[in-house]
Design goal:
The protein is an alpha+beta fold and 216 residues long. Helices cover 19% and strands 30% of the residues. The chain is built from 5 helices and 9 strands. The protein is globular. It starts with a helix and ends in a 12-residue tail after the last strand.
Amino acid sequence: MTASFVEKFRPITNNIVFYKAQLSDVYSAHSNWMTQTGPIKTIIENTDVMHALSLMIPFDQLRDLFVECKGGWVAHFVGSDDTPKYLPIVKSVACSYVTTFYLPEGNGSQDGSDQLGGIGLGFFLRDPAKAFGSERVINLINNGDRWIFEQCGEPLPFEDSSIYHKRRIQDRFSIELAVNYLKANGISAFEQDFYLPCWTLTEPIRDKDGYWGRRS
C-alpha cells in the first residue's frame, strides 16, 4: 500500500503535513518563525523527493523539508518522528491543511522492538464563504495495551462513517480508508509521483558547540 520511499525514510515519513498553499508562502512563514530563535540555512533544488529526503539524514528535529506537490499542495516533513510544527505556518498563511500519521504495526523499529502502529488524519479545511472551515480528526492508535479509536468534528462528505461502528476497534479505520480520504482531497500521500521535483529544505546553523539559538 505504501510507496517504497515512505518505508525507506521512516521515521521522517511517519508524520506528514500538507498545506493548500504556494511553496514560497509556506517557506516564508516557516523561516520567519524559525529565525526568531536562531539562524537557519536554506537549500532549494529541483530534484526528486527521494534525493530531498536523503538530505534529511542524519535525523535532526530542527531540519524541515517542504516539497511542492500536484494539485496545489505542499508537503512538510521534519527530521524526526514528530509531527511537523505547522501552527506557525497556518497562522501566517491562513490555508487549508491536512495532517497525516501512519506507522504500520509490527517489528519495524530501528532497535528491533515491536512498533505499536497507528493511523491518524486531521482535516482543517477553510471555507472562503465562512469565517471558519471544517475541522475533522480521526485516529486509530495502539497504545500498547489496547487499540483506541477516536474522532472529533462532524464527518465530512467523503467519509464512510459506517465502518466506525464495527465491533473490533482495530477494524474501525484502515490505511486503505485513509488513502481514499486523502485522495478525495487531491492528496496521494503514498505515491512518489505526487511529489514534484521542487523543494526547499531548512536546517539550523549551529555554533562550534552544537548549540542553536540566541545566547543571552
